[in-house]
Amino acid sequence: MERTEQNNIIVPMPRIGDKAPDFKAVTTQGEINFPKQYEGSWVILFSHPADFTPVCTSEFMAFATLEKKFNAANCKLVGLSVDGLYSHIAWLRTIKEKIEYKGMKNVEVTFPLIEDITMEVAKKYGMIQPGESNTKAVRAVFFIDPKGIIRAIIYYPLSLGRNFDELYRALIAMQAADKFSIATPADWRPGDDVIVPTAGSCGVAKERMENQKDIYCHDWFFCTKKLSKEDLEK
Ligand code: BEZ
Questions:
Q1: Residue 196: CB partners within 8 Å, gap ≥ 6?
Q2: Among this protein's residues, is 56 annotated catalytic?
Q3: In a domain? residue 169
């Protein structure tokens, strides 16, 4: 077991492809058993620095407003900060009762918000990054697939509110990659062409370059095909 000079245990940060570290926690929606109870769904587990702070408030309002859209894509949301349950409850009540922002008002946060005063979960997930803060979680986003595997991780500093279009885009792109065995190019959005796996033999490379029927090859290793929004949603 590796330790720091202060004799603290060093917990390795989870990586893409790892099983999501498991934990049980108290949340604003009751106890959760993570990731076990989410088997079969995608989950976005995200941390925020603190309750009753402006950037976090704007983010929670955005996420709560988009929750149905994420749920419709078989994705559940779970938030976390290093605050206690009563602080979470008071903050979510304030958001609903008092805050109006960019056309959003009366916003009810119905996804679970984990209390993590001990930082046990935050440390397991590498959400405490001492160069940024010793006491506040950074804005981490873990995309966890229906088998409990971490598929993408994004970290933002305390001062930077997340882009929720990008979180949704990333989710849909990973689901498309799984379902259609494709990859998605830079700035891909649903409805755009997707990338087919690179030819694995000289014969396939030749065939693709000579006979471009359903795919378009920029070169033998870079071929795209259509994937309509309708097919994506089927
Ligand atoms: C915020 O959410 O506004 C915030 C939280 C911690 C540090 C800086 C900003």
A1: 182, 215, 223, 224, 225
A2: yes
A3: no
- Using CA atoms, how far residue 116 sits from 24, 40, 86, 193, in Å, is 11, 25, 12, 42
Q: Give the integer Cα–Cα distance in Å for 82 and 65.
A: 23
128 and 202 fall within a common domain: no
Our mutation pick for probing the ligand 1 site, out of 52, 55, 59, counting the most ligand atoms within 8 A of Cβ, is 55
* Residue 214: CATH number of its domain: 3.30.1020.10
Tally of domains in the chain: 2
Query: What separation in Å is there between the alpha carbon of 82 and the centre of ligand 1?
Result: 13
Compute, in angstroms, the gap from residue 109 CA to the centroid of ligand 1.
Answer: 19
Residue 185 placed within a domain = yes
pTM given for the model: 0.94
With respect to residue 170, please indicate whether it lies within any of the assigned structural domains. Answer: no
Q: What confidence tens digit (pLDDT) does each residue in 101-151 have? A: 999 999 999 999 999 999 999 999 999 999 999 999 999 999 999 999 999
Write down which residue in 112, 131, 162 finishes a domain: 162
pLDDT in tens, 26-69: 999 999 999 999 999 999 999 999 999 999 999 999 999 999 99
